[in-house]
Design brief:
single chain, mainly alpha
């Protein structure tokens, strides 16, 4: 495989056209996360740590929505290759049933038992109190988000990535503005601190949902039809379950396992939690191209497979793999270049700053492992209707290797905190041999469309 890029090749033009709006979307999301940390920095390290831990529930929810959304996209992108809009809207309705139901459970938990939810991550009374107050208010955003995220996934599956980015950008931009108002008490508003961040998130997600409904009415392609949630179609429902349940399970077990990493760090002290919250922000910026390519892989390859062009799908999957490796390396370079700036502009304790310095260094190469696995497992394989491999691979890797290793090294062997963090960051490289071998076998390549009426 050659790394030479022919600028006249339509593949690169189309991939760039799809990737750029998604990159902007991920950049905006990362910017909001960093803005939260920067603004809360003025409130105190405890506020940063509490919101960072409480946000793990939103991270789990995001992975659920992402799993449902990509599961729907797996089917929808291939039906888009056949220009079957009705099938796409029915698939969207099926995904909404699951996302709204799951969001309702999380919302109820955050409203009724927020302290117990926080105790899963930390035993620090101050962090529990602050995190619980955050969870109560932010819980309403979970329901708004459950609808808008599925609709935006449906738009992306039919290559409407620009409108998806605009709607996400609107919510994220509003979130930053409201954060500033309620954290700092601008324009006569009360200074709410952690609660202000939660309130800003709920309001911005609510407005985003209203904008999605408005965009749906103006759309010429896929619309947000709540009535489709109640339409029964046995064939599409079976296909959705067969493809989406492993995808959802994959993202959920990965997300929960990653949250267990936060449990490990949370019990190592607030210095580790604070340092990790900064690292997550930097890593989010560094991986925007990687995660964007994963999204594009599902859309682009799914469309080709739906059209029946298997050889072209094979060729373009190899090109996407090389692009991913390149973006992973660039992401690592970004972390190294950004580290001096980050270390000179954050205000943490001396111990937390020590942790931060080396945790950034570890992430400069960890990103390469994350990039390759994300694009292949969550992008390429799912485009071909293969979500089962990723579910099995990540279950074994995270729950038989990563999580046990983290708890063993931290609480049994009681290794130095940075050694524990380093060991946690080996999980992506352990699964490389199996992931790459599965990619080269092309056993993931299937056309999953069929007659459903």
């Amino acid at each position: 495989m050659s790394l030479y890029i022919n600028r006249n090749d339509p593949f690169y033009r189309q991939v760039f056209r799809l990737t750029l709006p998604i990159v902007v979307q991920h950049l905006l999301s990362a910017a909001v996360s960093s803005a939260d940390v920067v603004m809360l920095n003025s409130v105190g390290q405890s506020a940063i740590s509490a919101v960072s831990l409480a946000s793990q529930y939103a991270s789990v929810l995001f992975m659920i929505y992402y799993g449902l959304g990509t599961g729907a996209t797996m089917l929808s992108a291939q039906y888009w290759g056949k220009q079957d809009i009705r099938a796409i809207e029915l698939i969207e309705g099926i995904a909404l049933r699951f996302s709204v139901a799951i969001a309702s459970v999380f919302t109820l938990g955050a409203l009724v038992i927020p302290q117990q939810m926080m105790r899963l991550f930390t035993n620090d009374p101050q962090l529990i109190s602050l995190g619980a107050s955050y969870l109560r208010i932010v819980s309403f955003s979970y329901l708004f988000w459950s609808v808008s995220e599925i609709y935006l996934a449906a738009l992306r599956s039919v290559e409407r990535v620009t409108i998806s980015t605009v709607l996400n950008g609107l919510a994220l931009g509003l979130n930053v503005c409201l954060n500033a108002v309620f954290i700092f008490g601008l324009f006569g508003a009360p200074r709410l601190g952690v609660v202000g961040v939660a309130f800003a998130t709920s309001v911005s997600r609510g407005i985003q949902l209203l904008c999605c409904i408005a965009a749906s009415h103006a759309s010429k392609n896929v619309k947000l039809r709540f009535s489709c949630m109640f339409v029964r179609n046995k064939v599409l429902f079976q296909d959705f379950l067969r493809l989406s349940v492993p995808a959802l399970g994959n993202d959920l077990i990965w997300s929960v396992a990653f949250s267990m990493y936060s449990v490990v760090l949370g019990h190592l002290g607030s210095d580790m939690v604070a340092a990790n919250s900064i690292v997550v922000v930097v890593r989010n910026f560094a991986t925007v191209f990687c995660y964007s390519l994963a999204n594009v892989s599902t859309i682009w390859l799914g469309k080709l497979i739906g059209q029946g062009d298997m050889e072209l799908a094979k060729r373009d999957s190899r090109r996407l793999l090389w692009l991913t490796i390149a973006t992973g390396i660039l992401g690592g370079i970004f972390v190294l270049a950004a580290s001096p700036f980050v270390l000179s502009h954050v205000s943490l304790t001396e111990q937390a700053m020590h942790y931060l310095k080396y945790m950034l260094l570890i992430n400069s190469y960890y990103i390469v492992g994350t990039a390759l696995n994300t694009t292949l497992i969550a992008g390429v394989f799912r485009a071909g209707g293969d979500s089962r491999f990723g579910f099995i691979c990540d279950t074994i890797d995270m729950w038989c290797y990563g999580v046990p290793l983290g708890f063993l090294s931290a609480f049994v062997l009681k290794l130095p905190h940075l050694v524990v963090y380093f060991l946690l960051c080996t999980d992506e490289f352990v699964k490389w041999p199996w992931v790459i071998a599965h990619f080269r076998s092309y056993k993931w390549l299937h056309n999953v469309t069929r007659k459903y009426e």
